[in-house]
Design goal:
By secondary structure, the protein is of the alpha/beta class. The protein has a single domain, classed as Methylglyoxal synthase-like domain (Rossmann fold), CATH 3.40.50.1380. The chain contains 6 helices and 7 strands. The protein has helices at residues 20-29, 31-34, 43-53, 67-76, 96-108, 117-124; strands at residues 2-5, 10-15, 38-41, 57-59, 82-86, 113-114, 133-136. A 5-stranded parallel β-sheet has the order 4-3-2-5-6, sandwiched between helices. It has a two-stranded antiparallel sheet with strand order 1-7. α1 crosses α3 and α4 runs parallel beside α5. The N and C termini lie close together (9 Å).
Length: 140
């Protein structure tokens, strides 16, 4: 089974505490591209992107308070198309099971995922980002 991802993507932005400055800096670099899409983020990350970069962002709960699970739920419901998640591989997270579940659900539902700045650069510069894209869904 396949589904069409629209040209205006629904992009989730998540960053652990140690990576939030990097996410803000990255978003400044790609502000023009990001403004063309619908943005959703976990609480603090989204608040910073709105305040410091001037992006329109729907803010969900903070990651440790259920934001990662909210993002995962939207992916499973087909309400998010891309995940950019700057996670911190060097610091244990109290909500590690939620982090693993989020990454797992993104792979299961076959959405593009960037976990570092280089991959995020490649993803937002892809010719597929701004056009419709046929995505294969898992067999249910």
């Amino acid at each position: 089974m396949d589904t069409n991802l629209p040209g205006r993507k629904r992009i989730a932005l998540v960053a652990h505490d140690a990576r939030k400055d990097d996410m803000v800096s990255w978003a400044w670099e790609h502000r023009e591209s990001l403004q063309q899409h619908q943005l959703v983020a976990t609480g603090t990350t989204g608040s910073r992107l709105a305040a410091e970069v001037g992006l329109e962002v729907e803010c969900l709960r903070s990651g440790p308070f259920g934001g990662d699970q909210q993002i995962g739920s939207r992916i499973a419901e087909g309400r998010l198309d891309v995940l950019i998640f700057f996670w911190d591989p060097l610091e244990a997270q109290p909500h590690e099971p939620d982090v693993r579940a989020l990454l797992r659900i993104a792979v299961v539902w076959n959405i593009p995922v960037a976990c570092n700045r280089s991959t995020a650069d490649f993803l937002v510069s892809s010719p597929h980002l701004g056009v419709d894209y046929l995505r294969e869904l898992p067999a249910a």
